[in-house]
Here is the input.
Amino acid sequence: MANGESYDCIVIGTGPGGYETAIRAAQLGMDTAVVEKDKLGGVCLNVGCIPTKALLRSAEVMADAQHLDDFGLELNGEVTPNFEKVVERSRGASNQMNQGVQYLMNKNDIDVLYGHGTLLGDGEVQVEPSTNMDGEEIGEEQTAEAEHIIIATGARPNEIPPLPIDEENVVSYRGAMLQTDQPDRLAVVGAGAIGVEFAYFYQNMGTDVTLVEVMDRIVPAEDPDVSAQLRESFEEAGIDVMTGAEVQGFEEDGEALSVEIETGDGTEHVETDQILSAVGVAPNVEDLGLDAVGVELDDTGHIATDEFYRTGADGLYAIGDVSGAPWLAHKASHEGILCVEKIAGEDVRPFSMTDVPACTYCQPQIASVQIPVPGQRQGRRRGPPRGLRQDDLRREVRRAPRCAHHRPQRHRDDRGGRQRAHPRDDRSRDDGVDAPAPDALGGGHGGEPRGLRPAD
Ligand SMILES: Cc1cc2nc3c(=O)[nH]c(=O)nc-3n(C[C@H](O)[C@H](O)[C@H](O)COP(=O)(O)OP(=O)(O)OC[C@H]3O[C@@H](n4cnc5c(N)ncnc54)[C@H](O)[C@@H]3O)c2cc1C
Here is the structure.
């Protein structure tokens, strides 16, 4: 038996998956608690979506400031970044959002149990004190129990053997957004959404960036046309882009680092001051007691669930990054909401991963709703929409002329395109759209949960 409180629902982790889940559970009348070993808001609010978007906004302003006459403006002087202040502004955005989650927990009568949560079995969770990202000791030893426990423990930076992360020579996304010393040169390894966003940010702050990608194109989860457009813009901005390039390791060379990179043409060495390892994320499945309670992992190492986020173990569920791709905040929130609505007996239907909008916030920004890339598996449960095979889809590229849309027109770079995929027999129904363009994502921070709809 637990020595602490008994709840209807306990959510472990308070990222956008966990806190939205807890709020919905409370709204549905469940007595709810969350367990959090760090700061409320998870990766997204503290070291992910929110602080990077604040950094990127500074980078956008900086980029526009270099071309003021394109806007009919004149500057009598020079605009230079104050890197420390740029980072400070981003931390301010995180802190504000973090306090917002605390407010929402209070407002919805959700108990916050600070500390590291471990599953004990029979609906019990052990909570032990932990240290948060600010170095503060938080929480107290206690146990709590619930009929329904939702694991929303998220993910952390992935690490590869040639690039052990020490947050000095080799930084993860955490180090890259928290450091206040700006490197003169930065090698960004990995050109997925996180890699290209940081490449854009640092280049516009005045760092010389080399972007290294092992696949044959950057943003490889997007359509090849999108990759090509982004590469063109990056190279125009001065970013050195290497594709089909695999990092083998690096050596310290005095103050500098020499990165050894295998390309199709042989071995190259890139001299840099720092390396950002942006090679994906790894699920937080350790130290949770999963084995003891019979929760199994899938073949990608994420927690295996059915379409309503039930693990094989009674009363245990998993949502968000810990349960697999796509690793996006709005997908995590939506899964959590469906999970508790199903628990509460609401009439919910599973949604298709093909309907999850994806978003990348460098410039040009990339908005896409799954256009299946021929022959490419894009992550768990992705692929052609339910009931359709790849061959059933007809892919059409419809490029908007440069002047056709007001958003690109508002910017200096008025390139942009739009393509759509639709079932061969139904031209009226779009099953995929992408738009690489300035301001493609409008003011949103990470796609829109409203964009999700049940399969079919
Ligand atoms: C640099 C960066 C930029 C991003 N930008 C975007 C974007 O623009 N749009 C977008 O949609 N997505 C973006 N993402 C992805 C997004 O942040 C994640 O998909 C999202 O945070 C996942 O939410 P989650 O709730 O599953 O987990 P997380 O946000 O990772 O939260 C998990 C929480 O669980 C806690 N926890 C873990 N283990 C335990 C334990 N045992 N006990 C107690 N607490 C525990 C952690 O401390 C953490 O607070 C970005 C990610 C990064 C890294």
